[in-house]
Write a structure and sequence with these properties.
Elements: H1 10-20, E1 26-32, E2 38-43, E3 46-50, E4 55-61, H2 65-70, E5 73-80, H3 86-94, E6 108-110, E7 116-118, E8 124-133, E9 139-150, H4 163-166
Antiparallel strand pairs: 1-2, 1-5, 3-4, 4-9, 5-8, 6-7, 8-9
Amino acid sequence: MTDDAGAADPLRTFQRLVARLDYPMYVVTTVAADDGERSGCLAGFVIQCSIHPARHVVWVSEKNHTCRVVERADVLAVHALHRGNRDLARLFGSETGDEVDKFSECEWSEGPDRVPVVAGTAGWFAARIADRLPHTGDHVGYLVEPIAAWLPDDDDLRPDLGFQSVRDIDPGHDP
């Protein structure tokens, strides 16, 4: 059965549908290979795209400070967030690295290839950037290959901070 209610304005109907989805949220961090500049942002566009070999694609807004830094990076880290990470989501989603050193506001350490690894998340993986996908819309896609990963011992700590829980966070840059 089809519903023709969205036929008059399919883009608006699509946008309404997507606004109802509750996809997982992540903090993506990176470090520039040339000068060691660190950056990180809140990301909702992260997905596994291959099993063998293991691959993910991570999209970062072109307007985001992190996008300019990851263009000079070889590695990034993807942190899965749990419901207790709302403050991290707010920090990495509502502040811009153009104005704020986000890493001075949270606990972190250096991971593989000096990539910043944020503490207290539901797990993370570091990944080497295998390819850049610049023409995917208003975000740049990064095809990544995992090189390291960490998962907490606490089985109850699930990566369950979704879009609906953070949709009220104002972005650190204009959309």
